[in-house]
Amino acid sequence: MVKDLKSALAALDAQEPGSLLGLRETQWLDAKAAPYQLAGPKAVEELAKDVAAFANGGGGLIVIGIATRPEHDEEVLDRIVGLDPAAVNVDQIRKLIRQWITPAPRGARVGWSGADGERVVFIDVPEQAAGTLFVVPAPVGKPGSPRTDTVAVPMRDGDSTHWLPRAEIQQLLSAGVRASGVPTAQALTELVRKAVSAAGPDGGLRVGQGLPDREREMRAAYEQLAGAGLGRPAGEAWAQGPAALQDLHHELDGEPGWALCLVPGRPPAAVAEPLWQAIVEAGRRAPGGQDPLAAVGLPRLPADSDTPWVIPADARSVDLDGGSWGAGRLSCSSRGVWRWQPLPRFSLDQGRSAETGTAGQTPALRLRALVNLPWAEPDALEVSKPRRTLLEQQLAHSAMAGAVTVLSRGVNGAKWPQIIGLGWPHGRG
After folding, report:
1. What's the sign of the alpha-carbon dihedral 299, 305, 308, 311?
2. Do β-strands 230-233 and 238-240 pair in parallel, antiparallel, or remain unpaired?
3. Less Cβ around it within 10 Å: N or C end of the chain?
4. What angle do CA 333, 13, 300 make, to 5 degrees?
5. Mean pLDDT lowest for which of 12-21, 152-161, 327-336, 354-363?
6. Residue 358: predicted pLDDT
7. What is the tally of structural domains in the chain?
């Protein structure tokens, strides 16, 4: 049953947009029957306003292709209108979000959901870092390019979006001036410079801006990867543990952007935006609200590579490490579904469970396989009797059996070592 943002995103990822029908527009949900008409500047302003408002309001979801009906002064998601894939350019939406919102919301995702005739587009705006204010160019009221010397602050209030009043913007600037501890004129100049530096397509963000201690290192990595098509920064750099990251545009308009990724001890990497979004989405399934990248980790190059690495948009897999899940591989299936799987690691360390099933016995050789798998919803796991029977049937033909065979050839000439205490997981969890 869909009842909150997490379950709504799960329904959309499962290609079931109809599960959202009956929900009310709220602080985290906005529905639109028709797509933004992005050929006109007013629609572009509206898109930027809607997305930035959710970024300022703790995250949210915009679903395009679902009509609403009024009910008790609220808007209820009523029916799926359905969109023609040729009528919506999701790459253009991504590009406009990066260009018009300062800083560009991290992890924002634009995608399709549903089958033919009931397709919808959704814009997922995850919760952003605390203390970050997202601004857009102030509405110009007539056709034209966005001005780089004005800002406006959109906010989400219940089921509606509004502009932060001028008096409240003044109060925010005053608070920033007071907190800076420097003369008013100098502090105000710096605050406004930061707010408008990238408000339009000609914004002046630098590679590495936001991480002064890593700026030189990031510029050097950018120059090493320049041949990959890296364009100007789409937002300030930020730290993810010991790593330094920054979103970049593509040097060609209309092409997916990049994420510049610097991890200590590894060559710098440029990750194409579609793959970067898949990495973030895989980590978003971590339980307990853990940061997605802290869970799934960051791209790990092959061990024999020491040169800058480019992961293109058409890559089908990438190895990840450094997160709480441990080493893993994110792979794309033939149906376009990304799935994270752990990479096996061998160790001679003996844990507390080593005696389970063999307590009090002294086998000549003990070979034990222990697998720890993270799972977002452990209550749904169960080793049923049919599944246990299948596991037992497959054991003789498994990699485990092959390892035992190889090891047995050097154990006193025996054909097979004695296997003591073969245990299976049971129950739930």
Report:
1. negative
2. unpaired
3. N
4. 50
5. 354-363
6. 55
7. 3
